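User: Hello! I'm new to structural biology and keep hearing that structure can be predicted from sequence alone. Could you demonstrate with Protein translocase subunit SecE? Please show me the input and the output so I can see what each looks like.

Assistant: Of course. The first part below is the input, the amino acid sequence of Protein translocase subunit SecE. The second part is the output, the predicted structure written as tokens.
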Amino acid sequence: MAGVLKKSNQFFRNVFSELKKVKWPTRKELVSYTITVLVTVVILAIFFALVDLGVSKILDLITD
């Protein structure tokens, strides 16, 4: 049991040590990345909705 606690303690020390090395984005970068992702998601959602609508209309014409 003591070995597990010792290994767990060392693991979390290593995790925190690695997190200190991470270059975190600035607020400006974070906002920019967030806007980029949201715009991309909206564009792809519209694209796939239009493709779905088109395929649906084609199938309606074929099956009627």
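User: So the tokens describe the shape?

Assistant: Right, they're a compact way of writing down the 3D structure. Reading them back into a model, for example: The helical segments are 2-21, 27-63.
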